[in-house]
Design brief:
There is one protein chain. With about 280 residues, this protein is an alpha/beta fold. Helices cover about 40% and strands about 20% of the residues. It has an eight-stranded mixed β-sheet with strand order 1-2-4-3-5-6-7-8, sandwiched between helices.
Amino acid sequence: MTKYIAFLYLIVAAFVAPALKAASVDTINIYSHAMHKSGKCVIILPESYNTGENRYPVVYLLHGYGGDYSDWVKKAAIVKKYVDEFQLIVVCPDGHYNSWYVDSPVDSAIKYESYISSEVPNYVDSAYHTIAERGSRAITGLSMGGHGALSIGWKHADIFGAAGSMSGVQNLLPWKNKYEMVKVLGDTLNNTNFLRYAVVNIVKEVPNRLSAIIFDCGVDDPFIETNRQLHKDLLLLKVNHDYTERNGSHNWPYWSNAIGYQLMFFHKYFIDKKDK
C-alpha cells in the first residue's frame, strides 16, 4: 500500500508541478504622445518575477497584418513556457491592424515606428524590472511584424541590440496593392515610399549597428523569396546574421514553432552580452 501511495504521489506531482511554475500575463495601456492615444499591450512575466529583485532582458514581439496585441498569447501560448525557460520578459504591443510599423508619410495619425522604438520601451522600463540597456533588448515579429521588427531594430540600434523576423515581408513593392499598404505609404507613381520603407532597402541605406540578427521563413510561405533576397543582400554586405528556412507556410503552427528558436537565440545573445 505504501508503494501504491508513493506511486500516486509521483503521478499527481508530475501534473501539479508544471502548474506551479507558470508565466503571468498583464494587459496594460501605453499612451502614445506621438499619436495622442493609448494602445493595449500584453506583458508576459516569468514566474520568478515577483520572487526577488532580479531584473530581466526584454523581447518585443510584434503581431502581423490584421492582428493585435493579444495574438501571440492567445494563438501561441507556448511563448509563456519560453519566458520561464529563458528568464526574460516578452512585450506584445499593439501595432494597429495595418500600420506596417512605420511613421506614415501620408497619415499623421500613424506613427508606430516612434511608438514601438521609443514610447513603449520607455514605459516598460519605467514600470517593470527590466535591464534598461540596448544589450538586453531585442525585437522580432511575424509577417507585417517581422518587417516592422527588422526595420525598427535596424534603424534604432541604439535602443535594440538584436532584431529578428518570422515570415517577414522584407520587400514591400511586390505587394504594393495588397494588405492596405497604400493607406499608410501612399500610392506614389514612382514607388518612392514602397522602396524607402522596405527592409531590403533600409539595410543598404542605413549602416548596421545591430549586434545580432535572426530571421526565418517557411519554404511554402508566399514571402519566402523576399527573405531569400534579404539573406543574399546581407551576405553581400558582409553583415553577420542567422537565416533559416523550414518546412511550413504562413500560419500559426509555423510561428508557434519558430518563436522557440528565436527566443533561444535572443537568450544566448543576452547571456553573451552579460559575460563581456
